Every structure is written in C-alpha cells, then in structure tokens.
C-alpha cells in the first residue's frame, strides 16, 4: 500500500457535478447530498487500514456536522479487482453494518475521483454553501493508530465553514493509501 498525502487546499476549486449509484439502490447527484451550509465529500473504501482506523470517528463527525447544515457523502473510487473488500456488495454490507449517516457511492469509472483530484483514502473535501473548497485537511492527528483526545480538525474546520463560509488557516494534509487506479491498458 502506497502512503499518499493530499495537496494543500485550493479555495478557487468548485465542487464538480456527479451522478453515482449508491449502495442503497438510489442514484445520487450533487444536489441530493449538499447541505444548506456546505458539503463534505469523503473518498474512502473498505480495505484501507487508514480508513479502518478512523472510520468510526468519520461517521461521528458526519453525524455531528448535520446539525450545522453540512451534507456529507462517501465515495469509493478504487478498482476492486485486486481489493474485493471494496466491491459494491461489500460496500453495501459495510454501510449497513456501520449504519452510515450518509450515502456511500461507487465511482466505478473513477471519473469522479479524477474530477475532484482525489489521491488517497481517506481524502476529505469540504465545500462551503457556494460550492468552493474550504477544507482539504485531515480528520485529526491519528493515522493508523488512534491518538487519545485528538483535536477534531475536520469537524472544527467544517463547523467553521458552516458558520463563516471559510475554512481554517494552516490545514494539515490527510494521509492514507493511494487510490487504486485501473490499468490504462
């Protein structure tokens, strides 16, 4: 597994349109998941040890951000060929098991990940109500090991976005496994 870090936030980047199937049998577009004060898009998957280590805290933050008008969506863009844990059926099982408070979408063509510029799992994209990127940092200081009492950087950053329309200064990149891209040939 190749460890990758996200690039610095680019506040001129606007949320791209998308239309993807959810594991719940519905198809979702941007307007279906956007909240009144912003949107959190989380590129994640089932097999990544970085995601597994923080998954419960991601779900906690998504639940807590709803009260601030932040909509959320999880997108899985890996090629599941070599990672069967990331198959559509296994995504659905995980979504049900963990009672995800957001849709879990499957980006089979990987085009959505490319439009966003996603590089790893987890990769967080926090947009304001106008659709501009304001957060591209990490969940907290934990990596594969949980740091007790870690500051909730993602939650606090997105709460600030909901309240002011702008993200925090000095964001620390997220780190995780690289997206598993399909072979070009």
From TrEMBL:
Residue ranges annotated for the Thioredoxin domain, each copy included: 9-160
Pfam families in alphabetical order: Redoxin
InterPro entries, sorted: PRX-like1 (IPR047262), Redoxin (IPR013740), Thioredoxin-like_sf (IPR036249), Thioredoxin_domain (IPR013766)
GO MF annotation list: oxidoreductase activity
PANTHER family per record: OS07G0260300 PROTEIN, THIOREDOXIN-DEPENDENT PEROXIREDOXIN
Protein name: Redoxin
UniProt organism field: Thiohalorhabdus denitrificans
